[in-house]
Amino acid sequence: HLKSPFGVVLVGNDLYVADTDAILRFPYSAGQTTITVSGTVLTDLPAGPIDHHWTKSLTASPDGKKLYVGVGSNSNITENGLAAESGRAAIYEVDRASGMKRIFASGVRNATGVAFDPWAKGLWAVVNERDEIGPNLVPDYLTQVRENAFYGWPYSYFGQHVDVRAQPQRPDLVARAVAPDFALSSHVAPLGLVFSQTSNLGAAYRNGVFISEHGSWDRTPLNGYKVVYVPFSNGEPYGAPRDVVTGFLNTQENAKGRPAGIALDRSGALLIADDVGNTIWRVSAVAKPKLASGTLPYPGHS
Q: What is the pLDDT of residues 206-256, one digit of tens each?
């Protein structure tokens, strides 16, 4: 039985599932559509009776030797006490062979999606930042995850912007807090990311990252509720996010769907898991109609 599973990654014939309290390993064969055996625990993960951010994101290193798992904070901004945050708000590195784990980066409030880029093979994450300091703060973000870096939570955000709600303060940690690479909009709640080199949506979507924005709950007007694309240049985010899939909100701001998981299939089409519509959407380019030889696309144009 699974306990609130979220992240999943396939490495060879091993399927790894991130439960809220452990990473489980299941044997898998190509073409298999059901699992009938119990999973083996690779390593336990911080959970506990509160488990405020229960989702555990998961990915594997390009060589398959390590797993990386996002473990969210146990509160918005330490309102449950610092003791409840032990081992939380971090990204862990897990050795596949032994199950041994260590904190790879800390101060990451809730890394809901983790993935390696196909260019420099660096680890990236989308992060849900803190709430309740206004509709425009704090932006959620996309960032490359530096080993042993501290990203501010709970004491600061985007580098040295101090959050006075976290007490007692730690100016020593604030001083070394790393600012993330790329700000998304505020409270968009990114849940997944997938890098693209082979998207069949066209050349404009072949060198960047797709991000699923689950959408805000504490902001007027609502924000997110869409899939965006962040273009990259020389291995770094370059330019504003582009809307790719919208329409999950109606004119009364009622959610008809909310993007959660995101992936590319073998053809390069985009797959979007919608946890309100209970649907997996497939998005691909529309083939241009073939015209008879000598036919103009429309009158007066060539």
A: 899 999 999 998 888 999 999 999 999 999 999 999 999 999 998 888 999
Two tokens, residue 118: 């196909």
Q: Please report, as a single letter, which amino acid is at residue 119.
A: W
Predicted confidence (pLDDT) per residue in 285-301, tens digit: 877 666 665 555 544 44
- For the chain, the farthest-separated pair of C-alpha atoms sits apart, in whole angstroms, at 75
Q: Please give the CATH number for the structural domain made up of 7-283.
A: 2.120.10.30
Q: CA 112 to CA 259: how far, in whole Å?
A: 13
Please report the beta strands in 72-207, taking only residues with DSSP state E, as ranges in sequence order: 90-95, 101-106, 111-116, 123-127, 139-144, 156-157, 161-162, 182-186, 190-196
Inform me whether the pLDDT recorded for 172 exceeds 70. yes
- Where do the domains of the chain lie? 7-283
Check whether 302 has a pLDDT greater than 60.
Answer: no
189 in Cβ contact with 224 (< 8 Å) = yes
CA end-to-end distance (rounded Å), the chain: 61
Query: Distance of alpha carbon 15 from its chain centroid, rounded?
Result: 19
Residue in the structure block whose two tokens are 């032990």: 86
Query: Six-digit token pair at 98?
Result: 């032994």
With a CB cutoff of 8 Å and minimum separation 6, the contacts of 58 are 6, 7, 8, 9, 16, 17, 18, 23, 67, 68, 69, 70, 114
CB 25 within 8 A of CB 40: yes
Burial class (CB in 10 A: 0-12, 13-18, 19+), 53: buried
CB-based contacts of 64: which residues, under 8 Å, 6+ apart? 11, 12, 96
